[in-house]
Amino acid sequence: MISTQAFIAHPLILRHSSAHDRFSLNRSPIKRSLLATGVKRDRFTCSLSASVSNKVPESARLLNTAPLRSESDASRQPLNPTVRFLKSLFAEWRLLVPAIIAALFGSLSAVCIPVLYGRVVGFLARAASLDPVAGRLELVGHTIRLFGAFMIESAMTFIFVSLAARAIDRSTRRLRERLFDKTLRNDVGFFDETGRSRIEHSITREIKSVRDTMMMNLSKDRGLRAIVEVFFSLIVSVSITGTLGFPVFGLLVPILSTTSARIGMRNGRLAFNVEKKEGGVQSFVSERIRGLRTIKAFGAEKRESQALGRILDGVEQVSKKSTLSRGMTESTSRFTIYTTMLSYLMVGGLLICSRSLSYEMFACLTGYVWNLNFCMAGLSFTLTDSAKLSKSLESIYSLLDVAKSYSSDAEHKANGTSVLPAYNGEVQFSNVYFNYPSRPDVMVLNGINISLKPGQMVALVGSSGGGKSTIAALLSRMYAATSGRITLDGTDIQSIPPEVYAKQISVVEQDPILFQGTIRDNIAYGRPDELADDDVVIQAAKEANAHEFIMKLPDGYNTMWNPGSNISGGQRQRIAIARSLVKSPRVLILDEATSALDQESERLVQNALERIMQNRTVLLIAHRLSTVQSANLILFVRDGEVVEQGGYKELLSKENGHFRALVNSASNYVDCTAPPF
Ligand SMILES: Nc1ncnc2c1ncn2[C@@H]1O[C@H](COP(=O)(O)OP(=O)(O)OP(=O)(O)O)[C@@H](O)[C@H]1O
Ligand SMILES: [Mg+2]
């Protein structure tokens, strides 16, 4: 057991508790749920440390349980998400202040309309007894006043809606950009742990839903304007009907409206849950459409439809509650409206009978009651929406908070390393331990020490699941090591700004992704901050054996690529190699397998790979004997450890050696001309 004080004081922790380490641990779901349930840090750390394998040294174990935030961070209570969003909305105060003023004027003119309308009715009641000319003149006066109120109301509505909509657009756009930027700056572990579909859902659907909901509530009978109008309508109604009307407009209507609002808010929370479940449907469908070929190959159409059916059952389950609650909201809202109508007719009738209310004032009261009805119904929707909105914002901001706040520029300028140094490409792994953040209890790498001299080629071989790709992933900085150091020319790679590091390292994957755009854009993607002119792009394509086939495409380098494009796997791979080449990296990481390609493509890709390996430090996951033979050093990786290393001949001569056994194993053996390890 390790006490809190012990790990806080431990020098190793102090040395290694970089922002990144702290972050990786901070976002552990176990930790989060424990913190959420109020379990103290020391209990959490002790129980976690107890679950780490015995093979892991104390330093790694301690790091695994190191404090995640400074005490001051932990004690800082984040603001309520809705307040945070409103704060960001109010950054648009230049738009919002005139919008709110316009809304108030719009509402005031709307509140005046029933009075003007009442006057017209009063005029009509006595119109027959008036002189026709005087009557017409008075009618014109009433009409002009009403028309003026209508015009003001319409103009104010235009100003309010257009300005407020712009403010909402800007702030939701900012939120979307911030969330996208923050999540992208994280290492892959963050995505593994949080879930790609959850991130996608937040950036696309949740923020869109926030925007749409807010936009919808700009209409006259909702949101801010409805609140103002309900307030004034109640005051005027009470003042018209006096003590007789007070129980109705001062008590009954507010109580009924509050009840309806509470049901509306519950409905909003349930609607959010339905939307969340709907997100699951979306990611299921898009994944299956992407994997269409696999589904067809396995004749799994029916199975997949059934699987979708099961997901939809889940949606329906949540939706059932929501539909019930929706029905309740609607019916309570209707009930409130009818009760208000009935009460106003009774109160109005009684007042007319007792000669305390003129027809003019009754008509005026009618206007206010209708206003009340519309606005209260609108407000119940607003409250439903606001509950949904607050849940969406909670989800968006929780993702934003957990996403690493990595301002590389600020950090590295402070370190004085923003100037791009000329790296030689010397790579060193020193006692590297690693567990995937999504599997904190399994150490995948157990003390890796590797040294790659500039220009050397080091091949990783070994059994499946041994950790070869993980080593490559750490060097390409997809994940941060749990403990130990990886350095480039003696500098810890975690302290090199991501943009600078990305220029030094290139990864050639087995199944590279191209983005929508022209072939040229895809190649030039490797060098975004400099002018990757046509010469550079063409030169890279030539070196990658891609130029010839690109020139045969209908629009050459301007041919658009999209996922359905008629470009083979080998061609895609060569475009990706060209993309890696334009940035002239010092260190190259490659997973060599080309087994999915036909012989001709494989030869072309292999040929391109061999060419680009020249004069670069290469970490290679070797699948062919030919490349293993030409490697300066071969490392045999098993269970996260380098169990054997040396030159090709040296390893082959080892009696009972792992490498020798692998080469001799017929199923794994690959000669210079054919199949992979
Ligand atoms: N994203 C991940 N999350 C959790 N565990 C992972 C992840 N990726 C790999 N692992 C686990 O890490 C271990 C090492 O995997 P790795 O992919 O590095 O092996 P490998 O040597 O490259 O195997 P192969 O030769 O089959 O590609 C395996 O046990 C694997 O299950
Ligand atoms: Mg692998």
Characterization of this structure:
- By secondary structure, the chain is α/β, with parallel strands linked by helices.
- The chain folds into 3 domains: 1-51 and 65-76, no CATH class; 81-280 and 326-402, Up-down Bundle (ABC transporter transmembrane region fold), CATH 1.20.1560.10; 427-664, 3-Layer(aba) Sandwich (Rossmann fold).
- It is built from 27 helices and 12 strands.
- The strands form 3 sheets. It has a 6-stranded mixed beta sheet. The protein has a 4-stranded antiparallel beta sheet with strand order 2-1-4-5.
- Strand 11 and strand 12 form a beta hairpin.
- Helix 10 (132-184) packs antiparallel against helix 12 (196-216).
- The longest helix has 68 residues, at 223-290.
- The protein binds adenosine-5'-triphosphate and magnesium ion (MG).
- Residues 192, 436, 438-439, 444, 462, 464-470 line the site of adenosine-5'-triphosphate (ATP).
How many domains? The number is: 3
Residue windows where pLDDT falls under 50 for at least 5 positions: 1-75, 405-414, 666-677
Q: Mind telling me the C-alpha Rg?
A: 35 Å
What is the CATH architecture term of the largest domain? Up-down Bundle
Please list the strands of the largest sheet in the order they lie side by side.
6-9-10-3-11-12
Distance between the termini: 44 Å
List ligands, each type once. Answer: adenosine-5'-triphosphate, magnesium ion
Judged by helices, strands and strand pairing, the structural class is: alpha/beta
Tell me, what is the CATH class of the largest domain?
Mainly Alpha
Largest sheet: 6 strands, mixed
Helix content: 55-70%
The fraction of residues in strands falls at 5-15%
- Give the overall pLDDT as a whole number: 78
CATH topology group of the largest domain: ABC transporter transmembrane region fold
> Can you count the beta strands?
12
Instruction: Report the principal-axis shape.
Output: elongated
* The CATH superfamily title of the largest domain: ABC transporter type 1, transmembrane domain
Count of helices? 27
Membrane topology: Multi-pass membrane protein
Subcellular location: Membrane
GO molecular function, one term: ATP binding
Protein name: Probable ATP-dependent transporter ycf16
